[in-house]
Amino acid sequence: MFLLVGFISLFGYIAVFSWMENNRRKDGPWEITFTQVDNSPALLVSHKKLGLTNITIVFHDAITTTNAPLTFRFEHGRVAPFDLPYGKCVFLDTLYLPGTVAMEAFGHSIQVLPRTLTIDRVERPWISGEKILLTNRPPATLTPN
Questions:
Q1: Which of 1, 7, 32, 107 has a CA that sits 20 to 30 A from residue 48's CA?
Q2: What's the burial of 46, exposed, middle or buried (CB within 10 Å: 0-12/13-18/19+)?
Q3: pTM greater than 0.85
Q4: Phi, psi at 87, each rounded to 5°
Q5: What's CA 30's distance to the chain center, in Å?
Q6: Integer Cα distance of 110 and 139 in angstroms
């Protein structure tokens, strides 16, 4: 009887663990390619399951010494912050893929979420094929009267 309970418990554990792991990974990770567009560093963001392709974030007039292109698949957890080819990953949540990737590059904060893209704390809708140009120019301000 003791062995029967043990086998049933083991089978239940394996079945539940397999189901949870499959559910956790079914959507797949973010793929971010660190590349160059018109001699400027750029990020190419894609996610096949969400139907997002060729979303390009270009850092106009930024300078880098990294050999590009390098593609990262953010599918495994890791202690943040850690270095990326351009900047640092400051937050990574891969518990349920695609998860969240937050990075800082060339003075900009970029957050990749399933529902939206956030650049410098401003949400942008996902648009496949979009090219986003970022500069390091200070924002225009009004002079006091």
A1: 107
A2: middle
A3: no
A4: 85, -150
A5: 5
A6: 17
